[in-house]
């Protein structure tokens, strides 16, 4: 088992001094939902500014960012203002409004729906969990055979440790439909070379992490909110804001945007996640009428936990 424990302030402060050829540092944000939130621009702007100050090697967003509509051009310009490599993952809501995946790929200027990139001592593998397949109606949660074969090849060929990035997680029982098939590929690769450092995902707007068969899964919370639907619908902003953004009544929003700053340090063999805490805007979800059995308090919170784990290197 990998050791895991919360980061204390002294450890967080020391991150600014960790930056060498044996380290890589990056910022992760997910589920901003620009097309739902009235303040998506401000949330993204704060993330980009913080990552510039942290001098990260790259930033990545894990999906449900924005649809490829001209109205979102200003939002995209904020993302592009980061002075360094920027990477995208496709979320299920990034094709809302009748767009196809290729429309969003082109709008985001992604190399493809799934791809790899190198960042110093690590390789990033980006997956697309929106493939046709499975039995679910509505939004798809699936990775097709061709992409799984490609993933196997990338893991076998990688000359450096790997981080994987995808929108839908590989959890039980609510991850992608063929999650066990994909996890088997990861577990086989991990047993062979121990080169998978972590798997980062979004989608569920929850905060947790766990280890399955020596593969570390990190669920990154939404930058913006927990979706409650009609069960917890309530207006918490000015009526004019709700009139312009009608879906806002169905969210329990976070006062401040959430993101994670990740440092992988091979000199000390540590993966360090520096998270953030915020507060609910207005009443919390349970005060708004939703059941704790549907929204467990230990994972549904305005927070991304700070974590430190031991890692191995090839």
Describe the structure.
- The chain has 7 helices and 15 strands.
- It is α/β, with parallel strands linked by helices and 314 residues long.
- The protein has a single domain (4-9, 21-310), classed as Purple Acid Phosphatase, chain A, domain 2 (4-Layer Sandwich).
- The strands form 3 sheets. Strands 1-15-14-13-2-3-4 form a 7-stranded mixed sheet, with helices on one face.
- A hairpin with a 2-residue loop joins strand 5 (115-119) and strand 6.
- Helix 2 (40-54) packs parallel to helix 3 (73-80) and helix 5 (145-157) packs parallel to helix 6 (179-193).
- The radius of gyration is 19 Å and the shape is globular.
List the defining traits of the structure above.
7-stranded mixed β-sheet; disordered N terminus; 314 residues; 21% strand; Purple Acid Phosphatase, chain A, domain 2; alpha/beta
Explain briefly what this protein structure is.
This protein is of the alpha/beta class and 314 residues long. The chain is built from seven helices and 15 strands.
Main β-sheet, spatial strand arrangement: 1-15-14-13-2-3-4
Overall tally of structural domains = 1
Shape verdict: globular
Using the coordinates above, name the CATH class: Alpha Beta
Which class best fits the helix and strand makeup? alpha/beta
CATH architecture: 4-Layer Sandwich
The number of distinct β-strands equals 15
What is the third-level CATH name, the topology? Purple Acid Phosphatase, chain A, domain 2
Q: State the helicity in percent bands.
A: 10-25%
Strand content: 15-25%
Number of helices: 7
Distance between the termini: 18 Å
Biggest β-sheet: count, sense, barrel? 7 strands, mixed
Reading the helices and strands in chain order gives: EHEHEHEHEEHEHEEEEHEEEE
Low-pLDDT stretches are 1-19
